Amino acid sequence: MLTPNVLSIAGTDPTGGAGIQADLKSIAAGGGYGMAVVTALVAQNTRGVRAVHIPEAGFLRAQLDAVSDDVRIDAVKIGMLANVEVITTVTEWLQAVRGDAGSDREGPTLAAFPVILDPVMIAASGDPLLAPEAVAALRALLPLADLVTPNLHELAALTAEAVAGSWSEALAQGARLAAASRVRVLVKGGHLAGAAAPDALVAPDGTVTEFPGARIATPHTHGTGCSLSAGIAARLARAPGDWAGAVARSRAWLRESLAAADQLRVGGGSGPLHHFFGLWERGGLDTAPSPATIRAEWWDGIAAIRADTEALGFIRTLADGTLDRAHFLEYVVQDSIYLRAYARVLARLSEIAPSPEEQGFWARSAHAAIMGELELHRARLGDADDRAGAAPLPSATTNGYVNHLLAASTRGYAEAVAAVLPCFWMYADLGARLVNGDIDARARSAQHPYAEWIATYDNAEFAADTETAIGYVTAAAAAATPEIRERMWRAFAAAAGWEREFFGQTPAR
Ligand SMILES: Nc1ncnc2c1ncn2[C@@H]1O[C@H](COP(=O)(O)OP(=O)(O)OP(=O)(O)O)[C@@H](O)[C@H]1O
Ligand SMILES: Cc1ncc(COP(=O)(O)O)c(N)n1
């Protein structure tokens, strides 16, 4: 899904709590790319409005055109419109870019983007943000909007009625406005007296969707109306047509941000809400590495171990064909012991895997490992491993490697999968390099004494499983906390070291 482009057309608040500044934060918190056209520059803070400067209408139109001439617009939120000229300019621009009526209620003249109108009239401080004579012009703009979000005072002004004294009166007033203007109305209960702060979506046909909620005890409600309408625009752009969903999700976010407003210290009046509180809490501020970055870093991180492994006498003589048979057999005996334990660790991963896909993958890998071991016995060892009548013992190195995997498997899924990864990744890489003749060109010869063994490394299925394992481990690492990610890396690097020791334990010249 492309990130939606959401445009706010509104006034400014240099203290960042209301207007354009709050809208951009709210759009970002709601999953949109925020854009802003300024209708009025407002010298205000948390205590009140000091002055308003309204740039000439031609400049407003130039800003609007600069956006629409270049950028796909997925939703528009309109806030402070200041005066009749500004309203007229925005109306004309909307008509030009959306066709005539523009609204998604108009059948064939479907809107290219939804318009959410917050009919800002008075700041929370009581200062006017709309010229009184402009209310009629704002009323005329309503049919161009898909949703209008008045507070109780704005609702009264738009219906030319008295301010509703109760929630049921407000709902009835909202229904009258919705029917008369053929527009959805979000009736907001923020200014109600009492312990409740409900909102309700009222459709032109009178259908009401209520969103109940207890009032949050905070004086810091500066910009809640701005933030809510911008948040709805962003969420609607992500899920077009789902008005109730956009309102519900925006309210959940707004309420969380209002509840955390006391953690900000912005000004001495009614302060702003904490737009990113929940996102910061849940997401943190660290730029977590992507799975692709982790893949590259971990692989580079064991470069020295990989180079040492490839330089081992065992690997070089296996590649050039001079490896002693007895030494080869010693390696195979230890490999067989290792595989039995390794298969049990993989089965344990299946047991603790977080998804059915991963559960299945590790179970399949456990099966492949133990079947590989049985095949090794049948084809290569025969009686070689119990010549003395007793099963051969694991070497100190085999024990060390297995103990590392078993210990990691008790420390949770993330560390456990990191520990088993080198056995996939280094083995698959070494095998591919051996088969390709990268280590020694003689390994490619059909006359090579270990040709049959080397051919077992040429295994597309194992290469694909290795990719899957890398995908699961790096995804788990990307999703992990920095501490767990660090522990995963250590488990991975230690296992890579054991992989080198394992190949190095067989004496070879
Ligand atoms: N104290 C509060 N607790 C919970 N929700 C609140 C509170 N105050 C306002 N809201 C919510 O904030 C949103 C804005 O409502 P309000 O009625 O205050 O609009 P407004 O007056 O346009 O906003 P502003 O305060 O920015 O002028 C609504 O969803 C409302 O329910
Ligand atoms: C530019 C601008 N737009 C809207 C508001 C309303 O917000 P509030 O009523 O919370 O002060 C504002 N103060 N400033």
UniProtKB/TrEMBL annotation:
This protein's UniProt keywords: Kinase, Thiamine biosynthesis, Transferase
UniProt keyword Repeat, yes or no: no
Domain of life: Bacteria
Hydrolase recorded as keyword: no
Catalytic activity line of the entry: 4-amino-5-hydroxymethyl-2-methylpyrimidine + ATP = 4-amino-2-methyl-5-(phosphooxymethyl)pyrimidine + ADP + H(+); 4-amino-2-methyl-5-(phosphooxymethyl)pyrimidine + ATP = 4-amino-2-methyl-5-(diphosphooxymethyl)pyrimidine + ADP
Domain spans labelled Pyridoxamine kinase/Phosphomethylpyrimidine kinase: 13-274
Pathway: Cofactor biosynthesis; thiamine diphosphate biosynthesis; 4-amino-2-methyl-5-diphosphomethylpyrimidine from 5-amino-1-(5-phospho-D-ribosyl)imidazole: step 3/3
Alphabetized Pfam families for the sequence: Phos_pyr_kin, TENA_THI-4
GO molecular function: kinase activity
Domain Thiaminase-2/PQQC: 314-503
NCBIfam families registered for this protein in UniProt: HMP-P_kinase, PRK14713.1
Biological function: Catalyzes the phosphorylation of hydroxymethylpyrimidine phosphate (HMP-P) to HMP-PP, and of HMP to HMP-P.
Name assigned to this protein: Bifunctional hydroxymethylpyrimidine kinase/phosphomethylpyrimidine kinase
Source organism: Leucobacter chromiireducens subsp. solipictus
